[in-house]
Please model this.
Amino acid sequence: MPRLRTPVILASCLALVLGACGSTSEGSGSEGSGGSGENASLEVVASFYPLEYLVQRIAGERAEISVLTGPGADPHDAELSPRAVQTVGSADLVVYSSGLQAAVDDAVAGQAPDTSLDVTPVADLMGAGESAEEHDEHEHAEEEGDGHDHGGEDPHFWLDTQRYADVAEAVAERLAQVDPEGADTYQDNVADLVAELEALDEEYAAGLADCASRDLVTSHEAFGYIASRYDLHQYGITGISPDSEPSPARLAEVSAQVEELGVETVFAEPLVGDQIARTVAQETGVEVLTLDPIESLTEATADSDYIEIMRANLEAMSEGLGCS
Model:
């Protein structure tokens, strides 16, 4: 397992998030405080939970943090209220991932083109369903002038501790540019996060090293980075978008794969529910467990943070894949 270069994680202050930035049931997008301190010198906007968590951990008390996608909301479907768009325009820094939330991309382009950090280039996204080896081959081909379409990129980079760490380093660097007086604080906090992410990576590598099955059947293809990093094979019932509905033919195809591979567990997700996974499970007689893509905090994870949810995911995979 390659050593993490500089991973970073952030602890989210959910009590403040829930108190001030709940999303509407229509998914209109709402801004709220993700953390603040008496000495806060910056106003920072994060587009959704994984980036909010990073900013909170790195900036600490030096920033007043707003998040554009509240707890329980699917970031893929985010829409922004006029007030949220205004918050984007008035912030010292907006941290977002282009291509994931069209409404956020539009707001940044119109309101904060010079005061924003797009983490997508830093995350070095893989193509949907692409392995690490294929990604490296594609990058080499592009460098040689023979690039081609990957068929859509997987936005869930934060499930790869290495990519998440690289993004955290970029966030810390940009915060230091905006607020030079806090540079030492940002660097110290990033170093702490790197140590936590390295430990988490080691836990995953050890926990998934010896498993009865390496076939990960999930509601949608959100776990490609985990599969690639720890030598698992992901089979998504639906594709990258959690909103897509599988056809009867697709459900039958996945059910046949489950039986052929001898899979004993299908993994559902908290935000999209377990109906799709349970349909396959009922057809094949396998168990249903939950894996959280950590796109947003939910009622069940309201008192947890990124690290804790990742560890819960590891526990679920260890059980479902028969790891020892």
Q: What stands out?
A: DSSP finds twelve helices and nine strands in the chain. The first helix runs from residue 14 to 20. Confidence is low (pLDDT under 50) at residues 1-33, 135-151. The radius of gyration is 19 Å.
